[in-house]
Amino acid sequence: MQLKKEIVSILQRFTTETIDDSMIEIPVYTHLGDYALPCFPFAKKLRQSPILIAQELAAIIQDESIEKTEAVNGYVNIFMKRKSFALSLLTTLQKQGKQYGSSNVGAGGIVSIDMSSPNIAKPFSMGHLRSTVIGNSIALLHEKSGYQPVKINHLGDWGTQFGKLLVAYRLWGSEKKVREAPIETLLALYVRFHEEAKIDDSLNDKGRAAFKSLEDGDTEALALWEWFRTESLKEFQRIYDLLGVSYDSFQGEAYYNDKMDSIVEELHERNLLVASDGALVVDVGEHLPPCLIKKSDGATLYATRDITAAIHRKHTYHFVKSLYVVGNEQSLHFEQLKIVLNKMGYAWSDAIQHIPFGLILKDGKKLSTRKGKIILLEEVLKEAILLAEKTIEEKNPQLINKKEVAKSVGVGAVIFSDLKQHRKHDIEFDLKKMLQTEGETGPYVQYTFARACSILRKAPAQIAFEVKDVNDYEWELIKALKQFPSVVLRATAEYDPSILAKYAVHLAQSFNSFYGNVQIMNDSKHLSYRIGLVQSVVIVLEESLRLLGIKAPTEM
Predict the structure, then answer these.
(1) Is residue 150 within 8 Å of 345, Cβ to Cβ?
(2) Which candidate, 329, 348, 354, 343, places its Cα nearest to that of 290?
(3) Using CA atoms, how far apart are residues 360 and 417, in angstroms rounded to an integer?
């Protein structure tokens, strides 16, 4: 049970006022207690001052887990019994191990997660990092909370852009160059198309016509498209391997080509389609633009495919939640999607949730494949790994498996720098800050974990521990460890890995304060208890990093 809920259950016995666990605060200063209940929300109803309410409540609260309570300026400050609290927590952690923090909140329900979704024939840029790592962590958090995640890489392998690419390849392409450097060459062709189209607008018409021929099954166009797709997947897989991310499905937009006609027909039968300038749309309300289903030339759109995909996923997975980890700029699209599905009579449309995130910016500007302004993720990861390897060579040249550790640290630094930010915020790309090994970074948390592991390697075989007393440094660490289950649940419920990333930093800081101020190995009286505390930190830090999609090297 979450600790705040435990505190609430105790307090609720002594008052008829409803107490919510969100009301329980953790004081900044330890002399003000371990937990505090502000009584201001009760003042209006009870017609008493918060100070008097706090005094009356503090005087009657008694529980075997509470050392004392006191009333201070309208707050009930609660001091826990440190020894019994610590013994209970550490016993639980030793018993549960990596299962600590797991729950059955999801009751086995399936959650489909649409994530990553890079476009074929384009390089995997930093712009796709966010959807990939946020989606992966959300999947791991849901699994920890008792759900069954299904990770879907909805590849951008269809649409007008491929018509443009076909035109560009036919006009300026070289088979030899594409075979030698497929993604680099195709990107150059795509960028050239948009530069040339600024001068000759007829190229855009040709691009639309080429995509229509692709939709109509033109043999030569399909062969080129399949070639571009195959080469792209090879590059993507190399990057996913580096990130340690896997998928349950690679069904992209093209997968739904032969399934859309029946959906369009269903929309027609339900009298939802309206003709508009030769196109077919669905009215989604006066406050939103209509949802475009078919263009005047008969070509389908993102909405058509996403409606089809949503229905197919519901029939395939029977999900309880369907998450779309897609950028902020697509909010309107998903609002329209849910309304159309609801109009079609699918009550489960409420289970669809857009998980938006901000952009990665460079010098304050959006990265753009179209303009050729991109930062290649693979290059960033490789540079991060090389820098980590150089640092290890300088500080710990005798380390075994240096290259493997450098990979874990370098890739972990890139992932952590993204996930520690709230997902809705834009992030300015700064490789130097991303790779810092001090402060609130992935390498800092990893190094703390490795430090704790090094203590355990020197420690004697652990026996049952006894808690004789708990000093302030140990107490702060114990309280941080106790927070982990509630942090997991909150990060899962809010679809926000930054909650967990910030917690991991806090736990690492608490441990390093404990490490720097407490004799762990040279105090026989407290040795077994303190070793048990270090073991608990190892369990929770490793699990925190795992849920963020980051490896935890035992040596650095």
Answers:
(1) no
(2) 343
(3) 12
